[in-house]
Amino acid sequence: MANVLEALEVTKIINNVTVIKGISLNVGRGEVLGLVGLSGSGKTVFSKVLSYVWKPSSGKVLADGKEDKFAVGLVWQTPIFDKYKVIDYVEFFGIKGSEAKELLSDVNLEAKRRADSLSFFERKRLSLAIALAKDPSYVVFDDISGVGESGLSFFKEFILKLRNKGKGVIVTFHNISEIDDIVDRIAIIHRGKIEGVYKISEFKNISYLILAFDKVDEKLMERLKQFGVRYRDGNVVELSYPGDPLDISKAIGCEYKIIEIKRINKLSDEIFFDKVKRLNVEN
Question: Which CATH class is domain 3-202?
Fold first, then answer.
């Protein structure tokens, strides 16, 4: 899959504070990447750098292999417009006449309405139309929340249309569960760094096994590796093994005793918050 976007060691410093810290990331043609993080993690700043709204302090952002601000569209988190007509904005940023009207029809907006009279959801749709007016290689959606259930469905359907057309898409969000049905991969941003990029299947209602032992040492941990050790907390070990706990009991031998067994099914948001919790402990 050819990359439509490559971020190469991107750093952004604002008021002497390093907000984005050497991020490298890519998005393929026809791929939807979810950029997920807590408030203040750097999602919006990174979105603006990826969209050429802000220049990186160091590093590069490449669109189709070159630095090209016209190859990317940004759907702003909180778009604000003046008193001009809706169609004026689309024509100013790209296409004219009947093409502009057709694009506005695609996002369900009347061409002659004043932009400053639009609701929040309508302003987001106008921001989308402006982003698409340049026929970009990839589109960055900086947070599509706050538009209600029907509004979220609208944007998700539109994102899938863009993917089917071979566009790259980045969508930022707080909760994976809201977008896990449209994204191909998830990138977790935490304190200005990408802490991991995962296939969405790694966040889909995964079953974990939690075992409490009478004792835990290095020999036991070595024997448990084959069952997918996720983490250890004292004498409690969490495994990603979906099979029968008896298999584990046989493998570890009689010198270790399992004193409690619990199986839990975690939803995508729980898995995300678990990862962030561990990042906070590690950092």
Answer: alpha beta
Q: Which pLDDT band, with edges at 50, 70 and 90, does 276 fall under?
A: low
Contact 75/128 with Cβ under 8 angstroms? yes
Helices (H), the chain: 43-50, 86-93, 97-106, 120-132, 148-164, 218-224, 245-252, 268-282
Going by C-alpha positions, the residue among 23, 10, 4 that lies closest to residue 63 is: 4
Is the pLDDT at 231 greater than 90? The verdict is no
> How many Å apart are CA 219 and CA 230, to the nearest integer?
16
For the stretch 185-206, pLDDT in tens is 999 999 999 988 988 887 776 7
* Fold of the domain built from segment(s) 206-266: Alpha-Beta Plaits (3.30.70)
**pLDDT value of residue 107:** 95
Separation between Cα atoms, residue 182 and residue 276, nearest integer Å: 22
Q: Which of 62, 5, 25, 6 is CA-nearest to residue 192? A: 25
277, 241 contact by CB (below 8 A): no
* DSSP string covering 67-107: --GGGEEEE-SS----SSBHHHHHHHHS--HHHHHHHHHHT
User: Which token pair is 256?
Assistant: 């270790």
Cα–Cα dist 177/112, whole Å = 37
- Classify strands 138-141 and 72-75 as parallel, antiparallel or unpaired: parallel
CB under 8 Å to 59, separation ≥6 — which residues?
7, 8, 9, 10, 11, 22, 23
pTM of the model: 0.76
